[in-house]
């Protein structure tokens, strides 16, 4: 698929999303459009899978109807295999295309269809979405499909005041989506996955502050992913304790040939659903991911696991309980102090370090305050550097690159087995970006410079510096980047003699102008 075709597809999807939008907030209509795309994906995967099984019988899955004498026999045979391989099952009459066609009265046209053609399909659609979940009951995939479509309330008045109005708008959306070929037969292409990521990004840009709950800008994700996969072609595991929509986990997978297992935890129920959909839609088998819904700091769900790569973009300076009972928790006990209740940043760091394998790399995005704040945070920072020597790099990013906040941020990189145990790399990438409308954007050349500098541990004037542990100690474990990377730009020297000469010339010129003005005043009979 060419870049032009990709952009055309993205625009097509965004136009369909806007058909739904009406007066809904971005995060509300997001749940509908992404849910419908996911249903289309499941349906097409089901159809491709079933058609392969039916090849010898020379019959297509969609043509198997209840009127067929062998209907039940076909259905049971395919259901059994589908649940084992795909993790879910859809009947032929429940396929996306069949429902879209019924909603449009079976008529396909280039123009938007008239309301009079629409057949009422809301009830059927609701049943299908429920049946997808019910098909997994009692199977290995039950937890992965549990309540996946719960945020798609087809009876919401936001879709239309009457059932008929809601039916019309949903039928229209299904019809337009049905015409799009996501090329699922071409296994080497991830057309739908890319399109899904595009839509998630578009919704994030329109969701303001809420966007931070579910989305990390792709350029930041790329930096984190490239760092935690340094020197690796395969990963046994990757973990994100605040996984949002799962995009950051999937980005890591793009940097290596294979990821054996994805792990994540997400507190927000709607975002948790989005993450599971995103995984399945990107072709990650349900047995290959373990994403849980819970508060990571208070109720961690993967406490017995160690991970080879860990990435996170946790909510900046979030509140947490900081309950003294946590001091007996293995994640926090060795530090002797907890992160303050008003700022959970270091609690996330401690949690992630606990889960980091000995050969692992971890990268986390945090606000700049973690570099220099005192009290308990200084104590934890000092312990991580002086006692553990886990901090590998500090990377300063430009301000205003995250949706919903303009604050400058940084990436902290940690390793339990550092190749360079005697220093910490500091990179100041805060001034290298491109301004696009109201956002600052990192282009490929900016990302490549950061990653290459990290990989090579390059010292570049006014950009990067390897600070010894002694220097950090002398700075009282303050990691503020300007203390290590000198970005001072000397002001141009001023030639006083030249400036004085210019002033004298200007004064002489002014005197001449004053004489000319006096002449004009006298001619006009004006004397002052």
Main attributes of the structure:
single chain; 528 residues; alpha/beta; 9-stranded mixed beta sheet; two-stranded parallel sheet; 13 strands; globular
Overview of this protein structure:
With 528 residues, this protein is an alpha/beta fold. The protein has helices at residues 3-21, 26-53, 71-85, 96-103, 122-134, 142-145, 163-178, 191-206, 218-228, 247-254, 269-281, 345-355, 375-387, 444-456, 469-474, 496-523; strands spanning 234-235, 238-240, 258-259, 262-266, 289-293, 307-312, 356-367, 391-396, 409-415, 423-428, 434-436, 439-441, 464-468. The strands form three sheets. The chain has a nine-stranded mixed beta sheet. Helix 12 links the parallel strand 6 and strand 7 (356-367). Helix 1 crosses helix 8.
Apparent shape? globular
Q: What helical percentage do the residues reach?
A: 40-55%
Strand content: 5-15%
Largest sheet: 9 strands, mixed
Mean pLDDT: 88
Structural classification: alpha/beta
Low-confidence stretches: 106-116, 208-212
Q: Order of strands across the biggest sheet?
A: 5-4-2-6-7-9-8-10-13
Quaternary structure type:
single chain
How many beta-strand runs?
Answer: 13
Radius of gyration of CA atoms, rounded to a whole number: 30 Å
- Tally of separate helices: 16
Q: Give the SSE string.
A: HHHHHHHHHEEHEEHEEHEHEEEEEHEHH
- Intertermini distance: 81 Å
Topology of this protein?
Elements (H helix, E strand, L loop, with lengths): L2 H19 L4 H28 L17 H15 L10 H8 L18 H13 L7 H4 L17 H16 L12 H16 L11 H11 L5 E2 L2 E3 L6 H8 L3 E2 L2 E5 L2 H13 L7 E5 L13 E6 L32 H11 E12 L7 H13 L3 E6 L12 E7 L7 E6 L5 E3 L2 E3 L2 H13 L7 E5 H6 L21 H28 L5
């Amino acid at each position: 698929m060419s870049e032009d075709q990709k952009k055309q597809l993205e625009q097509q999807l965004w136009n369909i999303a806007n058909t739904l939008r009406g007066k809904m907030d971005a995060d509300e209509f997001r749940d509908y459009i992404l849910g419908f795309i996911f249903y289309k994906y499941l349906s097409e995967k089901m159809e491709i899978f079933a058609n392969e099984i039916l090849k010898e019988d020379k019959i297509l899955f969609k043509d198997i109807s209840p009127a067929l004498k062998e209907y039940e026999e076909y259905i049971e045979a395919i259901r059994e295999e589908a649940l084992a391989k795909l993790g879910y099952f859809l009947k032929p009459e429940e396929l996306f295309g069949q429902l879209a066609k019924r909603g449009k009265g079976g008529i396909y046209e280039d123009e938007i269809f008239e309301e009079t053609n629409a057949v009422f399909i809301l009830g059927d659609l609701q049943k299908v979405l429920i049946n997808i979940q019910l098909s997994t009951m009692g199977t290995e995939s039950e937890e992965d499909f549990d309540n996946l479509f719960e945020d798609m309330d087809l009876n919401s008045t936001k879709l239309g005041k009457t059932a008929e109005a809601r039916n019309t708008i949903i039928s229209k959306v299904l019809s337009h989506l049905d015409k799009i070929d996501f090329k699922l037969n071409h296994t080497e292409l991830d057309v739908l996955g890319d399109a899904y990521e595009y839509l998630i990004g578009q919704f994030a840009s329109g969701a303001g502050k809420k966007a931070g709950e579910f989305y990390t800008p792709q350029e930041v994700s790329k930096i984190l992913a490239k760092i935690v996969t340094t020197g690796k072609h395969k990963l046994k595991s990757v973990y994100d304790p605040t996984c949002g929509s799962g995009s950051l986990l999937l980005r890591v997978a793009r940097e290596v040939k294979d990821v054996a297992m994805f792990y994540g935890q997400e507190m927000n129920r709607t975002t948790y659903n989005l993450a599971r959909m995103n995984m399945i839609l990107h072709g990650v088998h349900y047995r290959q991911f373990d994403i849980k819904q819970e508060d990571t700091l208070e109720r961690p769900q993967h406490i017995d696991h160690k991970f080879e790569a860990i990435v996170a973009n946790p909510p900046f300076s979030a509140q947490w309980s900081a309950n003294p009972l946590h001091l007996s928790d293995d994640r926090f006990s060795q530090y002797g102090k907890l992160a303050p209740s008003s700022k959970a940043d270091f609690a996330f760091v401690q949690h992630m370090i606990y889960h980091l394998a000995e050969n692992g790399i971890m990268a986390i995005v945090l606000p700049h305050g973690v570099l220099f704040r005192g009290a308990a945070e200084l104590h934890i920072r000092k312990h991580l550097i002086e006692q553990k020597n886990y901090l590998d790099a500090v990377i300063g990013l430009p301000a205003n690159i995250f949706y919903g906040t303009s604050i400058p941020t940084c990436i902290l990189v940690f390793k339990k087995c550092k190749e360079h145990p005697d220093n910490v790399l500091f990179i100041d990438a805060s001034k290298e970006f491109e301004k696009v409308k109201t956002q600052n954007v990192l282009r490929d050349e900016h990302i490549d410079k950061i990653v290459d500098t990290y990989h090579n541990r390059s010292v570049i004037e006014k950009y990067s510096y390897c600070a010894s542990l002694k220097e950090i100690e002398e700075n009282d474990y303050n990691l503020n980047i300007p203390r290590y990377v000198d970005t001072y730009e000397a002001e141009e020297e001023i030639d006083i003699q030249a400036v004085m000469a210019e002033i004298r010339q200007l004064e002489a010129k002014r005197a001449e102008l004053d004489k000319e003005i006096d002449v004009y005043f006298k001619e006009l009979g004006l004397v002052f």
